[in-house]
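Database export, one record per block. Field names are fixed; values are copied verbatim from the stored entry.
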Amino acid sequence: ACPALIKYFKHVGIPVQEITVGLLTEAMTEGFVMHHGSPGRNFKMNFPILNTEDVYTEWYDIPSDELSKFPLLTNRHTGATMYDLKSIHENVADLYPLRVSYNMHHCPILFNSYIPHRVMPGPNAKYPRIMIATMPMKDPFDLMQLS
Protein backbone atom coordinates (compact mmCIF):
# COMPACT_ATOMS: atom_id res chain seq x y z
CA ALA A 1 0.00 0.00 0.00
CA CYS A 2 2.93 2.36 0.72
CA PRO A 3 5.90 0.94 -1.23
CA ALA A 4 8.22 3.90 -0.63
CA LEU A 5 7.65 3.77 3.15
CA ILE A 6 8.11 0.02 3.29
CA LYS A 7 11.36 0.38 1.32
CA TYR A 8 12.53 3.14 3.70
CA PHE A 9 11.85 1.05 6.80
CA LYS A 10 13.63 -1.95 5.28
CA HIS A 11 16.61 0.34 4.57
CA VAL A 12 16.80 1.51 8.21
CA GLY A 13 16.14 -2.00 9.53
CA ILE A 14 12.81 -1.34 11.25
CA PRO A 15 10.05 -3.76 10.22
CA VAL A 16 6.68 -2.01 10.24
CA GLN A 17 3.55 -3.65 11.61
CA GLU A 18 1.00 -0.98 10.73
CA ILE A 19 0.68 2.06 8.46
CA THR A 20 -2.34 4.35 8.82
CA VAL A 21 -3.42 7.64 7.30
CA GLY A 22 -4.38 10.41 9.72
CA LEU A 23 -6.86 12.96 8.47
CA LEU A 24 -7.98 16.22 10.07
CA THR A 25 -10.91 17.81 8.22
CA GLU A 26 -12.76 21.13 8.37
CA ALA A 27 -15.31 19.48 10.66
CA MET A 28 -12.55 18.74 13.19
CA THR A 29 -11.66 22.31 14.20
CA GLU A 30 -11.44 21.14 17.83
CA GLY A 31 -8.61 18.79 16.83
CA PHE A 32 -8.07 15.06 17.15
CA VAL A 33 -9.21 13.82 20.55
CA MET A 34 -6.90 13.43 23.54
CA HIS A 35 -5.55 9.85 23.48
CA HIS A 36 -2.57 7.59 24.04
CA GLY A 37 -1.22 4.47 22.42
CA SER A 38 -1.82 1.03 23.85
CA PRO A 39 1.02 -0.86 25.53
CA GLY A 40 3.06 -2.99 23.19
CA ARG A 41 2.76 -0.40 20.41
CA ASN A 42 4.26 2.60 22.14
CA PHE A 43 6.40 4.07 19.40
CA LYS A 44 5.12 5.76 16.27
CA MET A 45 6.82 7.52 13.43
CA ASN A 46 4.60 10.12 11.81
CA PHE A 47 5.27 11.59 8.37
CA PRO A 48 3.80 14.93 7.20
CA ILE A 49 1.98 14.69 3.86
CA LEU A 50 -0.29 17.69 3.25
CA ASN A 51 -1.35 20.87 5.10
CA THR A 52 0.62 20.13 8.26
CA GLU A 53 1.48 23.79 8.84
CA ASP A 54 -0.13 25.29 11.97
CA VAL A 55 -1.25 21.89 13.31
CA TYR A 56 0.39 20.79 16.55
CA THR A 57 0.68 17.60 18.55
CA GLU A 58 0.59 18.41 22.27
CA TRP A 59 1.85 15.91 24.86
CA TYR A 60 0.68 16.24 28.47
CA ASP A 61 2.19 15.01 31.72
CA ILE A 62 -0.62 13.01 33.32
CA PRO A 63 0.61 10.93 36.28
CA SER A 64 -0.10 7.19 36.04
CA ASP A 65 -2.25 7.25 39.19
CA GLU A 66 -4.41 9.91 37.52
CA LEU A 67 -4.55 7.97 34.23
CA SER A 68 -5.83 4.89 36.03
CA LYS A 69 -8.95 6.84 37.10
CA PHE A 70 -10.14 7.15 33.48
CA PRO A 71 -12.44 4.51 31.99
CA LEU A 72 -10.90 1.89 29.73
CA LEU A 73 -11.80 1.44 26.10
CA THR A 74 -10.91 -1.35 23.70
CA ASN A 75 -9.38 -0.70 20.29
CA ARG A 76 -11.81 -2.37 17.89
CA HIS A 77 -8.99 -3.17 15.45
CA THR A 78 -6.37 -4.60 17.80
CA GLY A 79 -8.32 -5.58 20.93
CA ALA A 80 -5.85 -3.60 23.06
CA THR A 81 -7.16 -1.51 25.94
CA MET A 82 -6.26 2.07 26.72
CA TYR A 83 -7.62 4.91 28.81
CA ASP A 84 -10.49 6.92 27.38
CA LEU A 85 -9.24 10.52 27.62
CA LYS A 86 -11.83 12.27 25.45
CA SER A 87 -13.53 13.81 28.51
CA ILE A 88 -10.49 16.06 29.09
CA HIS A 89 -9.77 16.96 25.46
CA GLU A 90 -11.04 20.53 25.71
CA ASN A 91 -9.62 21.41 29.13
CA VAL A 92 -6.51 19.23 29.49
CA ALA A 93 -4.26 22.33 29.43
CA ASP A 94 -6.03 23.58 32.58
CA LEU A 95 -5.57 20.25 34.37
CA TYR A 96 -2.10 18.97 33.52
CA PRO A 97 1.27 20.40 32.48
CA LEU A 98 2.09 20.53 28.77
CA ARG A 99 5.29 18.55 28.08
CA VAL A 100 5.78 19.79 24.53
CA SER A 101 3.89 21.09 21.51
CA TYR A 102 5.33 20.03 18.16
CA ASN A 103 4.62 20.83 14.54
CA MET A 104 5.88 18.09 12.21
CA HIS A 105 5.61 20.21 9.07
CA HIS A 106 9.30 19.97 8.13
CA CYS A 107 10.20 16.40 9.02
CA PRO A 108 8.87 13.14 10.46
CA ILE A 109 8.76 12.57 14.19
CA LEU A 110 9.44 9.43 16.21
CA PHE A 111 7.66 9.49 19.56
CA ASN A 112 6.33 7.44 22.45
CA SER A 113 2.60 7.38 21.83
CA TYR A 114 1.83 6.07 25.32
CA ILE A 115 2.33 9.64 26.56
CA PRO A 116 -1.15 11.24 26.40
CA HIS A 117 -1.47 13.62 23.48
CA ARG A 118 -3.89 15.45 21.22
CA VAL A 119 -3.66 17.10 17.81
CA MET A 120 -4.73 20.74 17.69
CA PRO A 121 -5.13 22.97 14.64
CA GLY A 122 -4.04 26.58 14.93
CA PRO A 123 -6.03 29.52 13.55
CA ASN A 124 -4.29 29.30 10.15
CA ALA A 125 -4.58 25.54 9.69
CA LYS A 126 -5.52 24.32 6.22
CA TYR A 127 -7.62 21.27 5.51
CA PRO A 128 -7.50 18.45 4.98
CA ARG A 129 -4.39 17.90 7.10
CA ILE A 130 -2.95 14.53 6.10
CA MET A 131 -0.18 12.53 7.76
CA ILE A 132 0.93 8.92 7.77
CA ALA A 133 1.47 7.13 11.08
CA THR A 134 3.63 4.03 11.18
CA MET A 135 3.97 1.56 14.02
CA PRO A 136 7.05 -0.67 14.05
CA MET A 137 6.86 -4.35 14.99
CA LYS A 138 9.14 -3.68 17.96
CA ASP A 139 9.92 -0.47 19.77
CA PRO A 140 13.04 1.17 18.24
CA PHE A 141 14.66 2.19 21.54
CA ASP A 142 18.00 2.76 19.81
CA LEU A 143 16.48 5.61 17.79
CA MET A 144 15.09 7.27 20.93
CA GLN A 145 18.49 7.85 22.55
CA LEU A 146 19.44 11.46 23.13
CA SER A 147 22.80 12.45 21.69
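Remark 1: Strands lie at 16-24, 32-35, 43-50, 55-60, 72-74, 81-83, 98-102, 109-112, 117-121, 129-136.
Remark 2: The first helix runs from residue 3 to 12.
End of record.
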